[in-house]
Design the sequence.
């Protein structure tokens, strides 16, 4: 019985660990061979990433030990129009940073959240006003109530998933 559980649990943990590590590497890393999604959802994620043009990164940081800035720069290098949202910063590398969605000069397709899941609920109304196609919560970011509220308004929600990992997988 214990051996059977190990044969099931260990590979799943290894896959999750590999995805986590891949998200934190720079874009020279290899493409992940697995994903948190089942096959149908992987295709949907790839379709999303191929169709969207503009991404707002909420919680962007210029600190080198934070993934938000590195992933935003990765997305920009891969052809997306990327904007950061932060109360103080003006730019991260060559990415313009604004204080609020209203300062972004184009329609946002994806709101990418690098914030504590508990804070997502307070952002729902502003996100609904922006009318993005997708709200993408990074690894470790969950908020089921916010997800339900956003989906009720027709906004697709992806939680606990690294947008850079999925992009590498879809290339």
Sequence:
């Amino acid at each position: 019985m214990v051996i059977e559980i190990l044969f099931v649990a260990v590979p799943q943990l290894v896959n999750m660990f590999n995805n986590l590590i891949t998200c934190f590497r720079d874009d020279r890393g290899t493409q992940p061979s697995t994903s948190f999604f089942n096959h149908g959802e992987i295709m949907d994620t790839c379709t999303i990433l191929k169709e969207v043009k503009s991404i707002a990164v909420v919680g962007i940081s210029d600190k080198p030990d934070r993934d938000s800035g590195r992933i935003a720069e990765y997305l920009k290098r891969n052809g997306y129009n990327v904007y950061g949202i932060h109360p103080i910063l003006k730019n991260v590398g060559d990415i313009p940073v604004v204080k609020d969605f209203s300062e972004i000069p184009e329609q946002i397709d994806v709101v990418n959240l690098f914030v504590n899941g508990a804070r997502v609920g307070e952002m729902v109304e502003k996100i609904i006003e922006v009318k993005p196609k997708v709200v993408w919560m990074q690894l470790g970011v969950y908020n089921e109530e916010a997800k339900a509220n956003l989906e009720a308004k027709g906004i697709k929600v992806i939680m606990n998933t690294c947008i850079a990992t999925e992009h590498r997988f879809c290339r």
Remarks:
- The longest helix spans residues 2-24.
- The mean pLDDT is 84.
- The radius of gyration is 16 Å.
